[in-house]
Amino acid sequence: MMKPIYLIFVLMSLFLINSACFAQIPILNTYDSPFPKVVAPGVISQDNGVAAPSDAVSLFDGKDLSEWTGKNGNPQWAVHDGMFTVANGTGDISTKKEFSDFQLHIEFMHPSDITGEGQMRGNSGVFLQGLYEIQVLETYNNENKTYVNGQAGAIYRQHPPLVNPLKKPGEWNAYDIIFTAPTFNADKTYRTNPRVTMLLNGILIQNNAVIYGCTTDEKIFDKLKGGIKLQDHGCVVNYRNVWVREL
Amino acid sequence: MMKPIYLIFVLMSLFLINSACFAQIPILNTYDSPFPKVVAPGVISQDNGVAAPSDAVSLFDGKDLSEWTGKNGNPQWAVHDGMFTVANGTGDISTKKEFSDFQLHIEFMHPSDITGEGQMRGNSGVFLQGLYEIQVLETYNNENKTYVNGQAGAIYRQHPPLVNPLKKPGEWNAYDIIFTAPTFNADKTYRTNPRVTMLLNGILIQNNAVIYGCTTDEKIFDKLKGGIKLQDHGCVVNYRNVWVREL
Amino acid sequence: MMKPIYLIFVLMSLFLINSACFAQIPILNTYDSPFPKVVAPGVISQDNGVAAPSDAVSLFDGKDLSEWTGKNGNPQWAVHDGMFTVANGTGDISTKKEFSDFQLHIEFMHPSDITGEGQMRGNSGVFLQGLYEIQVLETYNNENKTYVNGQAGAIYRQHPPLVNPLKKPGEWNAYDIIFTAPTFNADKTYRTNPRVTMLLNGILIQNNAVIYGCTTDEKIFDKLKGGIKLQDHGCVVNYRNVWVREL
Amino acid sequence: MMKPIYLIFVLMSLFLINSACFAQIPILNTYDSPFPKVVAPGVISQDNGVAAPSDAVSLFDGKDLSEWTGKNGNPQWAVHDGMFTVANGTGDISTKKEFSDFQLHIEFMHPSDITGEGQMRGNSGVFLQGLYEIQVLETYNNENKTYVNGQAGAIYRQHPPLVNPLKKPGEWNAYDIIFTAPTFNADKTYRTNPRVTMLLNGILIQNNAVIYGCTTDEKIFDKLKGGIKLQDHGCVVNYRNVWVREL
Question: Which of B175, B214, C22, C192 is most exposed, with the fewest beta carbons within 10 Å of its own?
């Protein structure tokens, strides 16, 4: 099949498929409906969040970012009040440790005086193995209109969340992310795709979803382990209680 | 292959394969190792537990068992102090509503003065669609020795929990169970097996585990929906905060 | 994440996401490497091909296209010599019967005097349930350069074949396609994706591949059954020995 | 759950769970219905069978068993007429090469003067990675009564074939077996189970079936590669055209 309407699309795409990552999967596009249903989660403790269990690797203990590296060494993001905050313009930060299969807990809060619209409203992201972005965005109650596979809880540009249980700005949200790492063939294509099951505020939003490929322009693709990367997208987002259990 | 050692085993089994359910899968056996690692979960609120989100079907609101039926009509299990307790000898109870794919939250607590050993220590069970038992047993810290695929958090006689994050008697535990219902072929065999992902006290204990077949002697097998059944196994177990989200 | 380079891409895509089908998945793009390895299959009988087994629905018995419909009723494709041939400009043809899960056997041959290049060299396609295209193209020995997920044996614009065992023009090829139909959620999104395992000339070329979504602009998307559609893409392609076993 | 009827069963099983393999899965039992539907495959060439494709490892070229080892070194099975035959009492034979994921083609024929009943009628077996038995048995037309998960085409004691397309004694049958090797956790439990898709005489008989665990008493369990083993079960079975493609 090769419809004329695709021709210009294919031409455009030539500019985009220059990275090793894009050799693995087709480029993915956004779509705008249907919206996930809005769900109010049950009462979630706003005090201290969920502490790390005994077998977890703590990635933030409320005091420092010693488990992380930034663009030029130590991260320049701000640590305060038991949380840390994206310092816009200082770049993404990544964990020093790398992981294969894991359960990741991470809490995030948008400021109550948030401004901006669409993808510029509270945008950040949690990159699993540095490659697969779980979107962070302020999309409480579906009020901030954007493409549904770019909402909070989406596997970026791939799967929208099943429902939308996000809490409003000024309140903490918790991601519990179960990641199954991919395995690879000799030619670096997937033998088995990565998969994600995920809760947001205790509500299932991804159910063993197949990740089609990386959502970034990362060049090294077929690695078995990778760090957790948090994105500086020019928006203010707060994080706390970050821990990983290796599976 | 047909080794002599199996002969008496096969003969014995003739007594066991008389139900419709066992036509679907081989009978499953117990095994005793390896033990799941003990994990202490982070601090879990012991006050009120996790309330139902806005899109959930509440199966127990702390006041009555009106969503359930017992052996002879209304359940005779005791409701008190915002919880309900197995009344030994009065039989299992089941929800009136039936479900296909769902997320189930249910909290349980063994009494602090618990006695008994092995499968007679705090035994109950949560039967998904009335057919697939998630074991409830007092196996805190792996101290109560029993077969590992019969521990708390096991898919009974099939999959042990990945780790053991159970809390000690007198403290509440929470199951968060994501169930994917099976689909069936015309001859009532599975087209796709049921699957379970499951957290115990926020810790992953089953990760998209394939359920091989029903764990009961239920006769009606290929149903698309079924209730949640709680087992009276002659032990005292308390439950609260039971809710289901249909997926 | 929203890099500037994507902006024009997203704008372009607005023209493409107007169908119901594209609401299900992102638009997919082509990619050009790595090429599947060329494999010469063992000796395949060129005489009569593989006859239908006893439980199959025969879709072409060598004599007529009575199991098919065309754009305006009876297909206008030519039946001759125990085979049938695309009549360019007369449109696609579809089976009258519809199928859910199935094993499909279909043989195809490009003429030995074939001309054309890229997607215009021997292009046709087998659309499973009318929605998911298995590409037919003359790409013997990888000599006809085109995007790899548009080769013969590709799930069109999604998965390239694992290897390339195509025979040269003038020789018959056989597809054996095992299709697992999708199941759907209430909002018409996939509950489980369709999957394909596939042999070309006895060689595995797709191994339980996840189909991301339909490859067509079909409007009715969430149907449980669908016919087999063969494409008139303006190229001469011969078919014979078409049969389906419902699973 | 612990019904009295299981007690003697559990006691019996204590004798059976002494191998490393049985720690991985429950012991599996046989069952007797429903029978797979009998299917007559299309005409299959009985002359030379299916030769190896260009990328295959040939495991039998019609002349010798140099790719195999037996109980005491070189196999003592008989090579004659382009085939080889089980020499009863000389033990199983295994390939020298080991494999991970693969496509295996193997043809087998029971003698036309076959005698015996049940599991003693033409019993042999193809052990994938030496651990997972694909049953070989003379069960043409379901006439030789045995448990259905012990028929030809069964994953032994686990999955019966979907249908029964076996040819009668004196005619060649062909297995085309697509094996996906398991991956393992640190504690030697499965991270992902092995899976099998399989054709018998061109007819699908296993569709991405999950293998629950090994079907043998092999002690070394968590290996990533393993040979193909053919079983001497005291019955006369002929084999030819054995080749493997590594995936």
Answer: C192
Res B40: pLDDT: 75
The stretch B111-128 carries a mean pLDDT of 96
Residues of chain A that touch chain B, judged by Cβ-Cβ distance less than 8 Å: 37, 39-43, 45, 48, 50-55, 103, 105, 162-163, 165, 176, 178, 180, 195, 197, 199, 202-204, 207-208, 245, 247
C-alpha separations of C180 from B2, C135, C208, C225, D10 in Å: 34, 18, 9, 11, 38
Q: Give me the phi and psi of C185, to 5 degrees please.
A: -80, 170
Count CA atoms within 13 Å of residue A139 on its CB side: 30
- Name the phi and psi angles at A23, rounded to 5: -70, -25
The domains located in chain D, with CATH, are 4-246 (2.60.120.560)
Q: How close C206 comes to chain A (CA, Å)? A: 11
Task: Indicate the DSSP class of residue C226.
Answer: B
Mean pLDDT (chain D, rounded): 84
- Which pLDDT score is estimated for C220? 54
Q: Distance, in angstroms, between C121 CA and closest chain D CA?
A: 25
pTM: 0.86
Give the tens place of pLDDT for each residue, C179-214: 999 999 887 788 999 999 999 999 999 999 999 888
Mean pLDDT over residues D18-35, rounded?
Answer: 47
Q: List phi, psi (to 5°) of A184.
A: -125, 150
Q: What is the DSSP letter of A202?
A: T
User: Tokens in use for D30?
Assistant: 């046989």
Task: Give the CA dihedral C186, C187, C189, C191, nearest 10 degrees.
Answer: -20
Contacts of A165 in chain B (CB under 8 A): 53
- Report H helices in chain C: 4-13, 20-24
Q: How far apart are the first and last CA of chain B?
A: 43
* pLDDT tens digits, B72-110: 899 999 999 999 999 999 999 999 999 999 999 999 999
Which residue of chain C comes nearest to D101, CA vs CA? C207
Greatest Cα pair distance in chain A? 59
